[in-house]
Amino acid sequence: MNVDWCPGIREACLHWRDAPMLQQSLEALEQTLEQDNDACIDCAKAIVEVVCQVIVESFDNPLAPLKPKAETPSLSEWLTAAVRALKLGDIRDEKFKKLVSSHHKLSTALNDLRNHAGTASHGKDPYLERLAIHHRRSAVLAADAIVAFLHKAYLDAQLDPASSREPWERFAEQNALIDAQIGLAVDTDDDGRTTLQFLLPSGDVLPVGIEVSRLLYQLDREAYVEALNATRGMGSDEADDEVEETAS
Q1: CA 231/CA 29 separation, integer angstroms
Q2: Helix and strand element counts for the chain (H, E)
Q3: Is 167 helix (H, G, I), strand (E, B) or coil?
Q4: What is the pLDDT of residues 1-36, one digit of tens each?
Q5: For strand 194-199 and strand 205-209, is the pairing parallel, antiparallel, or unpaired?
Q6: Rounded-to-10 torsion of CA 163, 169, 171, 174
Q7: Average pLDDT of 97-103?
Q8: Which residue has the higher pLDDT, 50 or 64?
Q9: The model's pTM
């Protein structure tokens, strides 16, 4: 398999492994590469487009929309939106701007090749000859260069934790600040309702009401089961038996 043609694509797809369409596109790319099928060009172009959409979605703001206005935006329009989202055009260095521009040229060439020879996009002349291997390789390498460029820039960008789909681990620096400076207390009212009280450095309290059962269920399923069994006055051995019986 020619997976060495697309290390940047595979790295980006691993990062966004919870994006089903992106994963399907990667599977299709790997399969068509294995088969020496010209459809790998369609798949490579699709991956670039999906990555652009992921990035745009991550930074889009209703007050200053980034998404292309066209009903069916072109690859170039999605790439332009992604570049804007990452603020890559805001850098004054003219040489870097030329580098950014070169990725736009790559996307245009990739899109043109896909329109001309991709087998999975539009109906083609049934007697059109299969492309040579270096044509397919060039297309995949072009897509990989664009995706790697965007993905690395995305990893360096400051994300908004209020809207980001990134996992908790993505905000390691922010997490460390919160963990070091925010205290935690628990308050329970007469009706048994629990409120977590986050103690801010200013002395203010940020209350978050949540049921103990919900907290345990969402954070630690084993602890939830252990707490459930404890409320029933059961020992751990009996608890394990009941869990097994329930599962069976």
Answers
A1: 52
A2: 10, 3
A3: coil
A4: 445 789 999 999 999 998 999 999 999 999 999 998
A5: antiparallel
A6: 120
A7: 81
A8: 50
A9: 0.69
Task: Write the CA distances from 174 to 171, 178, 184, 248, integer angstroms.
Answer: 5, 6, 17, 43
Identify the three-state secondary structure at position 220: coil
For residue 167, what pLDDT is reported? Answer: 81
Q: Please enumerate in sequence order all residues whose Cβ is within 8 A of that of 47, keeping only pairs 6 or more positions apart, or say none.
A: 9, 13, 22, 25, 26, 29, 143, 147
Of the candidates 19, 27, 54, which has an alpha carbon nearest to the alpha carbon of residue 153?
Answer: 54
Separation between Cα atoms, residue 10 and residue 23, nearest integer Å? 10
Contacts of 156 (CB under 8 A, 6+ apart): none
Of 61, 42, 53, 51, whose CA–CA distance to 23 is shortest? 51
Distances in Å between the alpha carbon of 33 and those of 11, 27, 108? 17, 10, 21
Of 23, 238, 197, the closest CA to residue 228 belongs to: 238
The most confident of 47-51, 73-77, 173-177, by mean pLDDT: 47-51
Residue 47: Cβ within 10 Å count: 25
